[in-house]
From TrEMBL:
PROSITE patterns from the UniProt entry: HTH_LACI_1 (PS00356), HTH_LACI_2 (PS50932)
Alphabetized UniProt keyword annotations: DNA-binding, Transcription, Transcription regulation
HTH lacI-type domain: residues covered: 2-58
SMART domains: HTH_LACI
Record carries keyword Transcription: yes
PANTHER family referenced in this protein's UniProt entry, alphabetically: HTH-TYPE TRANSCRIPTIONAL REGULATOR EBGR, LACI-RELATED TRANSCRIPTIONAL REPRESSOR
Membrane-spanning ranges: none
Lineage: Bacteria, Bacillati, Bacillota, Bacilli, Bacillales
Protein name per UniProt: LacI family transcriptional regulator
C-alpha cells in the first residue's frame, strides 16, 4: 500500500506537504497546481481512494465562488422574512460545502446594470426576458433560479410547490364550509398563488373576481385590502392571504372593524413566519421551507461544479399548520 512518502516522492514535494494537502489544511501556502498534483498522485497510487476523492471534492468546491442576486429590496426582505430565509439557506449551505459566497446583489427592474462575478450565480425571484439572464451570467449550467416560475428548463431551479400549498389552504377552508373565500396578494411574485386560487375556486363553482385584491407584500397593504373587502357589496366569509405579513395586516383590519376571527371571518396565511404563532388569534397558515430552498440551490450548483450535465429542477413541498384563525381542528 502506498505511503505519504511514496506520494511525496512522485509528486516532488515534502511528506509534510502531502500530509497537509490530503488533510485539507487551508493554511498551507501551496499553489492549486501542487494541490491537484498531490491528489492525482495519491489517486494513482491507491492511497485511501475514498478519502482522497472526498478531499479532492472539498478542495475543488473550496476554490469556487458564488454570487447571489435577490430580486427584492432590503425593505421587502425586512417586511417579509421569506426571502431572508432563502438567503440564510444559501449562506449556510455554502459554509457547509466550503464554497465562497461572493457578491450579494439586489435588483428590481432590469438586470442589465448588475455585474455578478464568480463561478456560479443564484437568482432569487424576478422575471426576465430572453437573453437577460445570459447578460448576468453567460453559463446557464451554473445559474440556479429560485422562486422563479417561467419555463426556463435550461437552468437548474428550485421552487415552492405552490399548487400543493394553495390546495392545502383552500381545501381546509372549503372543508369547513366556506364558499365566499377572498384572496389578497402582493402583486409581483404572487402570480402562482393567485393562479391556483382561481383554478380551485372555479372548479368549485364559487369563483368571484370581486373577492380578489392585490397590492404590496406589507402588513399595511394587508390591512388596506381587507378593509376594502369589508366595504364591498359582497363580504367574504374567509380569506386566503398570499403571505403571513399580509394576513397579519388583515387580522388587524378585522379587529378594528369589530369582526371576530374566525366566527366572523376565517383567515389562512402562507409562509408560517415566527410571528404567525403569536398573533391573536394564532394564525392558521401553510408552512413553506425557504431556508431549504436556499440550501437546495447551492447543492445544485455544487453538483454542476462536479460535472453534472443535465438540468435539474427541485420542488419543495409545504405543510398546512392549523391554528385558531380558521376555526379548524389541528391534526
Amino acid at each position: 500500500m502506498a505511503t505519504i512518502k511514496d506520494i511525496a516522492r512522485e509528486a516532488g514535494v515534502s511528506a509534510a506537504t502531502v500530509s497537509r494537502v490530503l488533510n485539507n489544511d487551508l493554511s498551507l501556502a501551496v499553489s492549486e497546481e501542487t494541490r491537484s498534483r498531490v491528489f492525482a498522485v495519491a489517486g494513482q497510487l491507491g492511497y485511501k481512494p475514498s478519502r482522497v476523492r472526498q478531499l479532492k471534492r472539498e478542495n475543488e468546491l473550496g476554490s469556487k465562488t458564488v454570487s447571489l442576486l435577490l430580486w427584492c429590496s432590503a425593505e421587502e426582505e425586512r417586511d417579509d422574512p421569506y426571502y431572508g430565509s432563502i438567503r440564510r439557506g444559501v449562506e449556510l449551505r455554502c459554509e457547509e460545502l466550503g464554497i465562497r459566497l461572493g457578491q450579494t446583489l439586489r435588483g428590481h427592474s432590469t438586470p442589465a446594470p448588475l455585474r455578478p462575478t464568480g463561478d456560479g450565480l443564484i437568482v432569487v425571484g424576478g422575471s426576465f426576458q430572453p437573453g437577460e439572464l445570459a447578460k448576468l451570467h453567460p453559463d446557464t449550467s451554473t445559474t440556479v433560479l429560485v422562486d422563479h416560475y417561467s419555463e426556463r428548463t435550461e437552468y437548474d431551479s428550485v421552487r415552492t410547490h405552490f399548487r400543493q400549498a394553495v390546495d392545502q389552504a383552500l381545501g381546509h377552508l372549503l372543508e369547513l364550509g366556506h364558499r365566499e373565500i377572498a384572496f389578497i396578494g402582493g402583486g409581483s411574485g404572487e402570480e402562482r398563488r393567485r393562479h391556483h386560487y382561481t383554478r380551485i375556486m372555479q372548479s368549485q363553482g364559487c369563483y368571484d373576481p370581486a373577492l380578489i385584491r392585490t397590492g404590496s407584500w406589507t402588513s399595511a397593504d394587508g390591512y388596506r385590502m381587507m378593509s376594502e373587502l369589508l366595504a364591498g357589496v359582497k363580504r367574504p366569509t374567509a380569506c386566503f392571504a398570499a403571505s403571513d405579513p399580509l394576513a397579519v395586516g388583515a387580522l388587524r383590519a378585522l379587529h378594528d372593524h369589530g369582526i371576530q376571527v374566525p366566527a366572523g371571518m376565517a383567515v389562512v396565511g402562507f409562509d408560517d413566519i415566527e410571528m404567525a404563532a403569536y398573533v391573536q388569534p394564532p394564525l392558521t397558515t401553510v408552512r413553506a421551507y425557504p431556508e431549504q430552498m436556499g440550501k437546495a440551490a447551492v447543492q445544485l450548483l455544487a453538483e454542476r461544479f462536479e460535472g453534472r450535465e443535465a438540468p435539474s429542477h427541485s420542488m419543495i413541498g409545504t405543510k398546512l399548520i392549523v391554528r385558531e384563525t380558521s376555526g379548524g381542528t389541528a391534526d
